[in-house]
Amino acid sequence: MSAPVPAAHPRPMADGSLVRTETASPGMCGPVSLFAGRVGDWTWDAVSALCGVDAYRAVDERGEPTYLSFYYYRIRGSRELHPTGIAFGDRLQVVSRVLDCGSESVLTVHRIRVDTGAAPEPLDPDAFYGGPRPGDLLVENFNRWITRTRQHSNRDLARASPVGFRHDHLPAPPPAHSPRLACANARRGSFLAEPPPDRWPAVRGFTADYPVEAGRDLNGVGLLYFASYFAIVDWALLRLWRHLGRGVRDYLDRVVLDQRVCYLGNADGDAVVRVRVDLWRKRDDQTDELVEVVLRDRRHGSLLAVCLLRVRAGAA
Hints:
It comes from Saccharothrix coeruleofusca. 17% of the residues lie in helices and 34% in strands. With 316 residues, it is of the alpha+beta class.
């Protein structure tokens, strides 16, 4: 039996992109949250490599820790490659590009493909936003530097750029695809400015309460881990599946074609998250479902996150 191939550090390409080859480990397969967490690590690696600051040890001018928090996260898959379809041992080629969004924010895009040994193609931002080609898995991370304003509290986090952060040398994202535009509606409680015209509402106002588990959902600095939001969404989605009379096999066979999350707040380790789920089905294809999941802190009513995902049910 051959030994596993270790993960490679990102290598620079001529256009400023970074490329790495990864072997899918058990720690990134199965739940979407595991995949999202691993790609988030690649984002921190890319920013550390290109922006003059170690994202893992960044501090502000006062010497206080500042964190590269996730504000907007989007995953776009294809039938051939999607986040729940990655298996142990899959060899993946990852090309990443970091884009300039000012002194307090940064945008990183990743194109993931099955590694065939072919030379990596440059990652052109305009082509990236054209959507995934067959076999592509595209991920977009918009991050903001933040710091705490209250000791031992995850409320009222503030923006704080770290010492040494460089961004002027990076290319700007295409204006029409600014993540700020994508999150404008989410801040009002929904990604959808109006009901989707080609779909009908199959479920409206399904709710469930998720108690945050301090031993599972918080990261190493006590913040509600960004990938835990994906886990809470999937927790609610499974309960919706059961509400619709579907089984676990139906849930495991779903294909996530598009999922976006806008992070609008954080929660303490003893919080309860009130989750609301709405589902629309495509009129001419009942397996094509659009699901919106809204997360609020039940105690304060504050908006924590909005997620919109397009799922093909039972299509794996």
